[in-house]
Amino acid sequence: MRLISRIPPKLQKTSRFIVVGVISNGIGYGVYLLITWLGVPHKIAMTLLYCVGVTMSYLGNKKFTFADTQKISMTIVKFLVVYIIGYIVQYVILDVLVDQFMVFHAFAQLAGAIVVAIYLFIALRFFVFNTPIASTQ
């Protein structure tokens, strides 16, 4: 990750969030496509993968993205609240786009993931892991 260390400090958290997000969402989206192809309904598949993604995100973002030094007990409740809201947003996007507008579920899942990722970065940065930028240098 030497490349990230060359990025200005104010952009490092964004860059790290993107790295964690691309890896975890890329894997998750591939698994989503596989299990829906195998017959698992799209909302159940999204729910299962969201639970796995929450764990991966907490571990990746707490240390790597935000270099957070707070005790887990100080961040876990806020983190879970943020992710529950993200889940609801993702679920509603799937419900509206797939069930009401008949958009192919894979496209709706991808669109929802992008919307939720933007929300999550803002919420994690300013609400959950709100450590000063200078602490990551």
What does this entry look like structurally?
It is a single chain. The chain is mainly α. It has one domain (9-136). It has helices at 2-5, 9-37, 42-65, 72-100, 105-128. α3 (42-65) packs antiparallel against α4 (72-100).
Set out the fold topology.
Layout: H1 2-5, H2 9-37, H3 42-65, H4 72-100, H5 105-128
Helix pairs in contact: 2-3, 2-5, 3-4, 4-5
Tell me the helix content. Answer: over 70%
Query: What is the residue-mean pLDDT, rounded to a whole number?
Result: 85
Provide the structure class: mainly alpha
Taking all Cα atoms into account, the compactness measure Rg is 16 Å
Compute the separation of the termini in Å.
14 Å
Main sheet summary: none
User: What fraction strand?
Assistant: under 5%
Our count of domains comes out at: 1
| Number of H/I helices | 5
- N-to-C order of helices and strands: HHHHH
* Overall geometry: globular
Number of strands: 0
Which spans have pLDDT < 50 for at least 5 consecutive residues? 133-137
In short:
Helices cover 80% and strands 0% of the residues. It has 137 residues and is mainly α.
Key words describing this protein structure:
mainly alpha; 5 helices; single chain; disordered C terminus; 80% helix; 137 residues
